[in-house]
Amino acid sequence: MQTKKLTVGIRNALLCAFGAACGLGVNDLYAQVATSAAAPAPAPATSAAQDGGAAATDAQKNATNLNAVQVTGQLESLLRAQETKRDDIGVVDSVSAAEAGQFPDQNVADALQRVPGVSVNRSGGESSQITVRGFGPQFVNVLVNGRDMASSSTDRAFDFDVLPVELLQQAVVYKTGMANLDEGGIGGTVNLVTAQPMDFNGFHASASAGGMNDTSAGGKVTPKVSGIIGNTNADHTFGWLVSAVYYKRDHETQSVDTSGWMHMGFPWVNPNYTDVYLPQSLQGSVTHEKRTRQALSGAIDWKPIDDLTVKVDGLYSEYKVDYGYNAFGLYTNPYVIDSITPGANNTAQSFSENATGGMSNDYIKESNPRDSKNMQFGLNLNYQIDKDTQIDLDSSVSRAWNKQSANGYFVVVGTRNIGVNPAWTNNGDSLLPSYTDFLSPTDVNDLHAHVTNEGTQSPNVSNGIFANRLHLSHTFQEGVLSRLDFGLEQSSQTKTMDTYNTPNSFGCAEYCGYVATIPASAIGAHVANFGSLVGGVSPGFPSQWVDYDVNKLFAYLATPAAYNQLPNADAFKAQLDANGGSFGAIPDPQKYSRIHELVRAAYAMGTLDGNMGEMPWELNLGLRYTKTDTTSEAYSVPLVSLVVNPNDPTNAIPTYGSISPISAHGSYSN
Question: What is d(CA 568, CA 369) in angstroms, rounded to the nearest whole number?
Fold first, then answer.
């Protein structure tokens, strides 16, 4: 086995030398080669021959003593990824910093999509979560520098979009389990490795600056800047490193959709129409996002004595999305359809509605902002007991949070289609359906309040992890058994979620149903031009419709001029006063949850290797024991009654009972 290792080492030295020569031949395009007098010389080629083996002897004949060769840049990064895949016992793939830098990746998930077996969830032109071997994001363990990283997602999935790809030195994807890997990664385990001080020699600094031209948002150029600076002393006993990233992007998404299909009978039109399929709506929307991603990482490596290494590193990242959604919607009310023509497969080909105003022109606005912040701080102590035995202790704390729930909203202002007969047409396979004969979407003089909710769009999430790991390893120079590993681990994790909204949705309980008129001047109503959505995929869909100021809308609806139009004005006023005179979002106890998880684990793992004829083999055997204790907390709010909203038959008004806390405890071992 020693012969094989030395042979591989000589082969790598030759490969590095060849890569360095090629790099010098093309003006350092791919590699930079530097000679350092302080660096130790490699073992003489004769040492390989002393171990025996024809391969080592051949390598000796062709080897050249280069004293010290340091390969940096793209070649070194690619070699590192290659060695990771070749040398690991399990099924492993990796992405190097150089590979990631060849593509316009904005975050770590974008880079990981190039790994075989890894697919990504995309939104707005960027990746956010990953799937490994067909298992969803919640079945993928994510580590940063070998440590659990907290996430502000609402489940066990990790949001990779918070981490800029510029912080990445290497990403390793383990597709098979081993005893030293945490449980839960059914799909796989991803270890994201950031740059470390001892990856470099001496003082080093680099920076890059560029611009992002997202044509979907009008072609505005936004900045993307990153830099790294660090230093190590001559004998590599102390080093430090700091890197930073700032990135901004404006993005626009257009969509036209039917929000799904429903099926029902229309006996009032024709007794034979018992099961006809028709769309729930026809809605066109424009979503604007202003994304800002910034991150800062730092690390210190120190060897106070020869056998002790102290590593301290930290990472902070923030991903902020200012999100605005503007839509025009025509929602199908099947009970006002007075004529319908089904096709051969019972899918509606056309229908028309009566003139009672059962369908409205809805002007929809939504905000679901995000401000995800992640941090991790770790300390690692490694002590080399002897040349074959080492022990290391690693402690880390990680937090993630996104607390924008109270700043979201969902509002609808609309106009009933009274006096006209809206008509819907199925335009076949190549186009979306279309509506005609509805009221003008640019009329600001007949507006009515409908949905009025602050908050509600997403929960506040807070996640914290505190972990400790103790690891002991011993390597054997002879025999089939080449390595033994033992470890003890403990992880304490808490995830809390709470959603803010207008209490009891009292605004919609009274305003839903278009019962209160709104002067255009009171809410700053105007006609906005949104263009031909998705290239005119729905023929005749409006390119202009009414827009308005949401803050002015909430302010007006809290005035007597608005709520005195309501059937239950006094009841609404009482709820408004109880909420401080506004629609302001407050925590909803029905949507609160807190989960605490304590995981303790121990493992033992052995690595065996040898040769079967001319073919080397390697086997990994291990045993891992894990005990998990969980505590879940929430609130129970029983539903007492549910009545149909007299202003809007498609909505209901709930009444809830008293709040009571609930909790559950669980424990399991595997």
Answer: 33
Amino acid at 188: G
Instruction: Say whether 208 sits in a helix, a strand or coil.
Output: strand
End-to-end CA distance of the chain: 35
Three-class SS state of 278? strand
Measured CA to CA, the distance from residue 600 to residue 492 in angstroms comes to: 9
In this predicted structure, what is the pLDDT of residue 214? 82
Cβ atoms of 520 and 414 closer than 8 Å: no
* Strand positions, DSSP E, 306-422: 308-331, 337-342, 348-353, 356-367, 370-386, 389-402, 409-418
- DSSP assignment of 620-669 equals EEEEEEEEEEEEEEEEE--EEEEEEETTEEEEEEEEE---EEEEEEEEEE
* C-alpha distance from residue 384 to each of 306, 396, 417, 477 (Å): 8, 21, 80, 16
pLDDT at residue 37 greater than cutoff 70: no
Residues 328 and 343 sit within 8 Å (Cβ to Cβ): no
Strands (DSSP E) contained in 502-614 are 517-518, 526-529, 544-547, 586-612
pLDDT tens sequence across 138-165? 999 999 999 999 999 999 899 988 888 8
Position 631 pLDDT exceeds 90: yes
Q: 2-25 and 74-87 helices cross at what angle (nearest 10)?
A: 160
Tell how many helices (H) and how many strands (E) occur in the chain.
Answer: 11, 35
Contact, 607 vs 619, CB < 8 A?
yes
- How many Cβ atoms from other residues are within 10 Å of residue 248's Cβ? 18
Burial letters for 187-218: b for 16+ Cβ neighbours within 10 Å, e otherwise?
A: bbbbbbbbbbbbbbbeebeeeeeeebebeebe
Q: Which of 437, 259, 434 is nearest to 349 (CA)?
A: 434
Nearest to 478 by CA among 385, 610, 389: 610
User: Alpha-carbon distance 138 to 463, whole Å?
Assistant: 15
What is the distance between the alpha carbons of residues 132 and 117, in angstroms, rounded to a whole number? 6
Q: Which of 458, 499, 505, 454 shows the shortest CA–CA distance to 654?
A: 505
For residue 109, how far is the Cα from the chain centroid? 8
DSSP readout, 403-451? --GGG-EEEEEEEEEETS--EEE---SSS--EEES---TT--SSEEEEE
pTM to 2 decimal places: 0.80
- Token digits for 90? 């399990």
